């Protein structure tokens, strides 16, 4: 396999891995969607249930591309900070689903989302000077999790 094919293959692995992990974690919510979640008071702005897996598949693909770009980057002073922000926000992202859907800890889930908002915002700012593509690609993700923060807040407040 030549260098160009290895590069493409590693990008595909990042994307597929992030989508697969996100999908596996998301599949854990299925029993709770028709039971617990359906009984909650939700915002009128809450999208239909079918929107979430579509949005998250796209977002995890983008997050995978960003991870690939970050780990391929040549060393620069804030690269370690960027990698740390990326990993921590991803761990928080993956932890939100079980805390919210499995354990029904809507308050803790809200705190997790708030931390994600801050970390992803920081990641965008830190990446911008040296990795504009990462910074710009993360904006839709930030917008989505800000919206998710609102939806989670609504559920926490009104239930």
Write the layout of secondary structure elements.
Elements: H1 3-27, H2 30-34, H3 51-72, H4 79-102, H5 106-127, H6 132-158
Helix pairs in contact: 1-3, 3-6, 4-5, 5-6
Description:
- The protein is mainly α.
- The chain has a single domain, classed as Ferritin (Up-down Bundle).
- The chain contains six helices and no strands.
- Helix 4 runs antiparallel to helix 5 (about 105-125) and helix 5 runs antiparallel to helix 6 (about 130-159).
- The longest helix is centred in the last third of the chain and has 27 residues, at about 130-159.
Q: State the CATH architecture.
A: Up-down Bundle
**Helix share of residues?**
over 70%
Structural class call reads: mainly alpha
Using the alpha-carbon principal axes, give the shape.
globular
Oligomeric status: single chain
- Average pLDDT figure: 96
Order of helices and strands: HHHHHH
The helix count comes to 6
| CATH fold title | Ferritin
The strand count comes to: 0
Keywords:
159 residues; mainly alpha; Ferritin; 79% helix; globular
Produce a short descriptive summary:
By secondary structure, the protein is mainly alpha-helical.
